[in-house]
Amino acid sequence: MAMNEAQISTVPRRVTVLGSTGSVGCSTVDLLLRDQDSFTVEALTAGSNVALLLKQALALRPAFVALADPAGRDELEAGLAGTGIQFAVGPQAVIEAAERPADWVMAAIVGAAGLSPTLAAIRRGAIVAIANKECLVCAGDLVMAETQRSGATLLPVDSEHSAIYQVFDFDRRDGIERITLTASGGPFREADLMRMRQVTPAEAVAHPNWDMGAKISVDSATMMNKGLELIEAHYLFALPESRIDVLVHPQSVIHSMVSYIDGSVLAQLGTPDMRTPIAYALGWPRRIATPAARLDLAALSRLTFEQPDPQRFPALRLARAALQSGGGAPTILNAANEVAVQHFLDRRIGFLDIADIVEETLSDIDGGRMTSLAEILELDRRSRERASNLVERCVAR
Ligand SMILES: NC(=O)c1ccc[n+]([C@@H]2O[C@H](COP(=O)([O-])OP(=O)(O)OC[C@H]3O[C@@H](n4cnc5c(N)ncnc54)[C@H](OP(=O)(O)O)[C@@H]3O)[C@@H](O)[C@H]2O)c1
Question: Which atom in ligand 1 lies closest to the alpha carbon of residue 19?
């Protein structure tokens, strides 16, 4: 996590938001709109939501906007007519947005679709705020090697990793014993397996504490999200899986903790509002103000903790095993999970089928050692194909 002094001191900071129309993207745009003297916008990108991308572009006046879905081209062109804002469509346009000269890039595309754009920002040595945990899960070795090579700075955006980053003594790592990722436990923390078998997509995306995109909400409900975060933490903090704990903390107030060898435990606390970790990355190394609700511990009165249940939440075990296996296993895990979650959201498979499909894909596909982006993308493709076949078998049953 190198620091580039020139980038740090640039005011206003020039920023790009990849995935600006999503949940993290909108929170980032909200912060940018509140402080237009401190930030100028180089580029915004979306998948297919032209209407929201146009609204954001007209408010923030970026130099460039990109839309991954070429079908929205005419609408985008009409909406930008006379503004002087350049635009392009297609997946390559999103990469082009990441390559443009912003000091700071928010990587908030969901899924492995964010890998190539995020890598493009890393490769030119930008400060990259990583929300897109899937790109670290499916290509962690490559992402970290490219970060090292280019001198880019990676800043975590996940609230848990942001918390750890804020209390992790990078200069004296030998003092660190372990880290603990806290987990809300999701909407089915107390549900039995019978109930979990019947949950609907609407129930799964209704997270008790956080307002997030559909995919991460389902991941939180299966606890695969914590599994992905475990792999993300392994890469961001260079710790083995055995030194990363997961603890269920339903109030989501303690965002995560670092345990030191003298018995001290340092944590970062706050109300569950993504604008706090996003602001930490956006202003870094300075602090910037946010309207997030302030923590009132007396009103909360108690914080509770419990161990995750491996029987009802097998996804966490699968992610740990994939990290232990190494090589392409996390790539397979991530791809199969993305496929299964989408089919669950489309009401084609049940909630408990998600982890089964991930587990079977992992046992069917041999990952091997991944060294290049091309190899990773090919493994991702093969894993998606296998997971899709397993979904069809599941649907036919
Ligand atoms: N939401 C949270 O509170 C939260 C917290 C921590 C970490 N994260 C992580 O942050 C990432 C984003 O999550 P989110 O909840 O913000 O997701 P989201 O609401 O679903 O937004 C995803 C963004 O990615 C864009 N997108 C989707 N597919 C794309 C593609 N193929 N090519 C280019 N852009 C594409 C979407 O565009 P459209 O709007 O046009 O579809 C949208 O801008 C995920 O990796 C998630 O795990 C999220």
Answer: 43
